[in-house]
Design a protein that fits this description.
Belongs to the glyoxalase I family. The chain has about 180 residues and is α/β, with parallel strands linked by helices. The chain has helices at about 35-45, 80-85, 130-140; strands at about 25-30, 50-55, 60-65, 90-100, 120-125, 140-145, 155-160, 165-170.
C-alpha cells in the first residue's frame, strides 16, 4: 500500500477530496532592509528572486525566493505569466518589506525562539554540510548551533540579517534521526 501519512491522534486518515490540489506555496518573514536580506538569501544561500510585488498604496514590497534545483521548470520571462507561475510553486520564501523600516534604528523582529516562543525557523537542505559550514564561516554568517554541537548532531542553525533562525541539514546524514 502506498504511503499517505503517519498516523497520530488528530490526523485525518484520508485526505478530504475538497483539498486535492492544495499545495504549500510560501512562508512569509518580515525584513527590515531588503538590500541586506536579499544579499544574504541570494549571495549566501544561493536563492533567486522569482518575483517582486510592490503595493504602493500600502507601502510594502514582497520578494518571492526559491532555491533553484536541477530539472526545475524555468520561470516564464513574461512578468504576468511569472506571477501566476510563482504562486503555483512549492516551498517558496516570501520576504515582506514595509517601506521605511530600514530607517528605524529600534525596529527588531521577534525570532520566534525567544520568549514567548512561536515561529521557530525555516530549513535549507544542502548536499554537503561540512562544505556549507565552511562557506558560512567564509561569509561571516552567525551560527546559533554548529553541526557538532549539542545532542542533535549533523544539524546546524544559522541566523539571517533579521535574526531569524535557519536550520541547515544534509539529508543523507539524517536517516537515523528520531529513532
Amino acid at each position: 500500500m502506498p504511503f499517505t501519512s503517519e498516523q497520530y491522534p488528530g490526523v485525518v486518515e484520508s485526505r478530504p477530496e475538497a483539498t486535492r490540489g492544495f499545495a504549500l506555496n510560501h512562508s512569509m518573514m518580515r525584513i527590515k532592509d531588503p538590500e541586506r536580506s536579499l544579499a544574504f538569501y541570494t549571495g549566501v544561500l544561493g536563492m533567486r528572486v522569482l518575483r517582486r510585488l510592490d503595493f504602493e498604496e500600502l507601502n510594502f514590497s514582497l520578494y518571492f525566493l526559491d532555491c533553484p534545483t536541477e530539472g526545475q521548470s524555468t520561470p516564464p520571462s513574461d512578468v504576468c505569466e511569472r506571477t501566476v507561475w510563482t504562486f503555483s510553486q512549492r516551498g517558496l520564501l516570501e520576504l515582506t518589506h514595509n517601506w521605511g523600516s530600514e530607517d528605524d534604528p529600534d525596529l527588531q523582529f521577534h525570532d520566534g525562539n525567544s520568549e514567548p516562543q512561536g515561529f521557530g525557523h525555516i530549513c535549507v537542505s544542502v548536499p554537503d554540510l561540512d562544505a556549507a559550514e565552511r562557506w558560512f564561516d567564509d561569509n561571516g554568517v552567525e551560527f546559533i548551533k554548529r553541526p557538532d554541537q549539542g545532542k542533535l548532531t549533523d544539524v546546524a542553525f544559522i541566523r539571517d540579517p533579521d535574526g531569524y533562525w535557519i536550520e541547515i541539514v544534509e539529508p543523507a546524514r539524517l536517516s537515523d534521526l528520531g529513532r
